[in-house]
Write a structure and sequence with these properties.
The protein has 169 residues and is an alpha/beta fold. It has a single domain (3-168), classed as TIM Barrel (Alpha-Beta Barrel). The protein contains 6 helices and 6 strands; from the N terminus they run βαβαβαβαβαβα. It has helices at residues 14-26, 61-70, 92-101, 114-123, 140-148, 165-168; strands at residues 3-8, 35-42, 74-79, 108-111, 128-131, 154-155. The chain has a 6-stranded parallel β-sheet.
């Protein structure tokens, strides 16, 4: 059995990941063999689609995505802005990030807005989608509906559902 960790700081911790990932790959004796990295997520500064998260990282997205690809780790852009409107869909910076991200089929978007997901599905069809925990789905029936939604490859449950083990099974 493997445990997959999804790590933050795709852009913020780029310099750290440049040093850490070679260790993780080449010094396997330092790590448990059942620990895997499922993805690294985040978004660079000033992304209107990211929902107000503050980031001070201005790393070159091409380098960031190339590093993750080199180690076969999925990059996930965190676009959890719940207030997206039609006028925001043409944002140049966010669209360019998605274009670069979609060059590899192993990548996805953590998303809140149905409007944004519909747009991204049509424009970047090879990206997968993760339902963001920012939706705060605390009713188990709402969570089940989200899991059954074929648009999502993954659904991140609200932490308040963690203790409902029988239902989660």
């Amino acid at each position: 059995m493997n445990v997959y960790y999804h790590l933050p700081g795709l852009f913020e911790f780029y310099e750290f990941y440049k040093k850490f990932l070679p260790l993780f790959k080449n010094k396997t004796e330092y790590f448990y063999d059942w620990c895997k990295i499922g993805s690294v997520y985040g978004s660079p500064s000033d992304c209107i689609w990211s929902g107000g998260r503050i980031s001070y990282a201005d790393c070159d997205p091409k380098k960031v995505f190339a590093l993750m690809k080199e180690y076969n780790i999925s990059s996930r852009l965190t676009f959890s802005n719940s207030l997206i409107e039609e006028k925001h869909l043409s944002d140049i910076k966010c669209n360019e990030l998605c274009r670069l991200l979609s060059l590899d089929t192993n990548n996805g978007i953590i998303i809140h807005s149905d409007l944004l997901m519909k747009y991204l599905k049509s424009k970047y069809p090879n990206l997968y989608f993760v339902s963001s925990t920012t939706k705060v789905l605390t009713d188990f029936n709402d969570f089940e509906k989200e899991v059954e939604n074929p648009d999502f490859t993954y659904v991140v449950p609200d932490f308040r559902l963690n203790k409902q083990l029988e239902k989660l099974n």
